[in-house]
Amino acid sequence: MGVGVPQLVDYYGKVYRDRIHDLPIINSKLEVEAVGFRKLDEHEFGVLITPWFMNLVLLPGTDRWQDRTQGTAVGIDLPGAKLDFTVAHDDKLGTILTAALFGTVTSFPGQAMARDVARETLRLLFTSTKDVGRGSGRTMSRRELLKQLGGVLGDQQ
Predict the structure, then answer these.
(1) 5-156 placed in CATH 3.30.1460.40
(2) Quick one: which of 104, 38, 94, 34 has its CA closest to 68?
């Protein structure tokens, strides 16, 4: 089993400060933040915002994926969708599962907007498929998730 949310944030904060703070992919208006982490069975699940990406992250509470090959896709069932996550193994973090929301965050105007997007993403993912009219068990693509997110955020503007 791996680390908890505070260790995840500390790790990526250190990566930012020590190795990549001055790269052109960095959005200096953003900081490393864990948003909306909650229990998902025996695991912890939420969004990790960094100055260079925004990902869904599952921190395993068991050794279920420990023997999976780095880069393997794993389907995770959520109330609002089934999403594919990528298995990653790290010496400091252990095994974590990630799904990219934004491979680059340079267009985010600030932390508040990034946080709002993260929260709305989690709200959509934890809304039952019955509530949104989709068939259960269907894998939602990243594109479909972002399309739904865009529609919801566009309504708020």
Answers:
(1) yes
(2) 94
